[in-house]
Design brief:
- Belongs to the WrbA family.
- With 206 residues, this protein is α/β, with parallel strands linked by helices.
- It has one domain: Flavodoxin domain (Rossmann fold, 3-Layer(aba) Sandwich), CATH 3.40.50.360.
- 36% of the residues lie in helices and 17% in strands.
- The chain has seven helices and six strands.
- Strands 1, 2, 3, 4, 5 and 6 form a six-stranded parallel beta sheet that branches.
- β1, α1 and β2 form a beta-alpha-beta unit.
- The radius of gyration is 16 Å and the shape is globular.
- The mean pLDDT is 94.
- The structure holds flavin mononucleotide.
- Flavin mononucleotide binds next to α1 and β4.
Length: 206
């Protein structure tokens, strides 16, 4: 069975999706020599009437994440747009359905990191990244940020935080990623792949 790091994201306008693909690129830069791939998955929208179900396969883009994708991963990069300083509800809704994994301890001892996109510079990137850590700590995952060893963390004029990669997308969410924002996404992917490789090579730490 292939070993993979899961990149699980929600994105309405596509900016968090761009980050997901860069993080996946970083994962494979570091991970492929070890046989570690990136698997990108998204989650469906949630409707005001929650009994309405989306088709199981989306019309375009990444497949919807299944619990099995999460259960079997060697590591996790979790991405969400910032919504009022918090993660977006479709991602939270998906995470709220992961109790069976929590009960079985399936994610314990696996590494995880977070990434987010905001419209504005001081619009709550860190609070969103911190909010995304809460469910992952309950799952017993090892949380990983970005160290200041990455020069882009000090030189960035827009996104990039020690809590995780971030992207300031502008009022119409169409500002291109800066070089620093891109480099930090790639670096976060590489760091996660390295950690996932090291941790899966040993006895699982509970
Ligand atoms: C309901 C809602 C709440 C938002 N809250 C914030 C916020 O608190 N801070 C901010 O800077 N941007 C906020 N935004 C802007 C988005 O975070 C931004 O457009 C982001 O790039 C969207 O990501 P996406 O392209 O992956 O959907 C909000 C957008 C929406 C729709």
């Amino acid at each position: 069975m292939s070993r993979y790091v899961l990149v699980l994201y929600y994105s309405k306008y596509g900016t968090t999706r761009q980050m997901a693909h860069l993080i996946a690129e970083g994962i494979e830069q570091e991970g492929l020599p070890y046989g570690l791939e990136a698997r990108i998955r998204t989650v469906p929208e949630i409707a005001p009437v929650t009994t309405v179900q989306a088709p199981s396969v989306p019309l375009e883009g990444e497949l919807y994440c299944e619990l099995e994708d999460l259960r079997q991963c060697a590591g996790l990069a979790l991405g969400s747009p910032t919504r009022f300083g918090n993660m977006a509800s479709p991602l939270k809704y998906f995470l709220d359905q992961t109790s069976s994994l929590w009960l079985a301890g399936d994610l314990q001892g696996k590494p995880a990191c977070m990434f987010t996109a905001t419209g504005t510079m001081h619009g709550g990137q860190e609070s969103t990244l911190l909010s995304m850590m809460n469910p992952l700590l309950h799952h017993g995952m090892f949380l990983m940020g970005l160290p200041y060893a990455h020069p882009a963390l000090s030189s960035t004029q827009r996104g990039g935080t020690p809590y995780g990669a971030s992207y300031v997308t502008g009022p119409s969410h169409d500002q291109p990623l800066t070089t620093e924002e891109k480099n930090l996404c790639l670096a976060q992917g590489r760091r996660l792949a390295k950690l996932a490789h090291i941790l899966t090579g040993h006895e699982r730490i509970q």
